[in-house]
TrEMBL record:
Its main location: cytoplasm. GO terms for molecular function: metal ion binding. PANTHER family: IRON-SULFUR CLUSTER REPAIR PROTEIN YTFE. InterPro entries: Hemerythrin-like (IPR012312), RIC_family (IPR019903). It holds the Pfam family Hemerythrin. This is Iron-sulfur cluster repair protein YtfE. It is found in: Cytoplasm. Residues 22-154 form the Hemerythrin-like domain. Keywords: Cytoplasm, Iron, Metal-binding. It comes from Pseudidiomarina piscicola. The gene is ytfE.
Length: 173
C-alpha cells in the first residue's frame, strides 16, 4: 500500500505533493486524534475492570496528538515553504525524519496497547470504533511518513544533459 502511494506521487510536483499531504494527512490527523482521545477516555472509564482494557491509551493518543501537532506545524511553517521553493535543507529534513522515527515508536506502543487494533471478543460498539480508528490512524500515519521520507524530502534529480547537446565532457575537442 505504501509503495503504491509512493509510486503514484514520485513524479508529481513538490507543490502538488505538499497540498496532498496537507489535505490527506495533516488535516485528517487533526480530525482523527481528538475523536480517538475522547473514545479512549470513554472506553477506559467504562471498562477499567476488563483485563483487556487499554489503560493509558487516551494518554498515549494525547501525547501522539501533541507531538504530531508540533511536527506538522514545523513542516507547514518552515519546511514545506522551503521545499516548495526548491530548497531542500539537510538540517530541517533530518529533524523531521528523526521525529518520524519517534512517531514510528509511538505507533508500536499503540499497536501493543490495542492488540494491533483488534478489540476483544464481546467488546462494545465504542471499543470497536476506537480500535478501528486506531488502525486507520496507524495506517494513515505510516503512509504519511513513507511519502514524506521517500518522496517529498528527496530533492528531485535533474535529468542528465545529453552529450553533445547541452554538455560536453571535453574529450571531443
Amino acid at each position: 500500500m505504501h509503495q503504491q502511494l509512493i509510486n503514484q506521487w514520485r513524479d508529481a510536483s513538490t507543490k502538488e505533493l505538499i497540498q496532498f499531504v496537507l489535505a490527506n494527512f495533516h488535516e485528517k490527523h487533526r480530525q482523527q486524534l481528538p475523536e480517538l482521545i475522547q473514545l479512549a477516555r470513554k472506553v477506559e472509564g467504562v471498562h477499567n475492570d476488563h483485563p483487556a482494557c487499554p489503560a493509558g491509551l487516551a494518554d498515549l493518543l494525547t501525547e501522539m496528538s501533541n507531538e504530531l501537532e508540533s511536527h506538522m506545524m514545523k513542516e507547514e511553517q518552515i519546511l514545506f515553504p522551503m521545499l516548495a521553493g526548491g530548497v531542500y535543507p539537510n538540517g530541517p529534513i533530518a529533524v523531521m525524519e528523526e521525529e518520524h522515527t519517534e512517531h514510528d515508536l509511538m505507533l508500536k506502543k499503540l499497536a501493543n496497547l490495542t492488540n494491533n487494533g483488534n478489540a476483544p471478543r464481546g467488546a462494545c460498539g465504542s471499543w470497536i470504533m476506537l480500535y478501528e480508528g486506531t488502525r486507520e490512524l496507524a495506517e494513515d500515519l505510516q503512509q504519511h511518513i513513507a511519502l514524506e521520507n521517500e518522496v517529498l524530502f528527496r530533492e528531485p534529480q535533474a535529468a542528465a544533459p545529453e552529450h553533445g547537446k547541452d554538455f560536453c565532457c571535453g574529450s571531443c575537442q
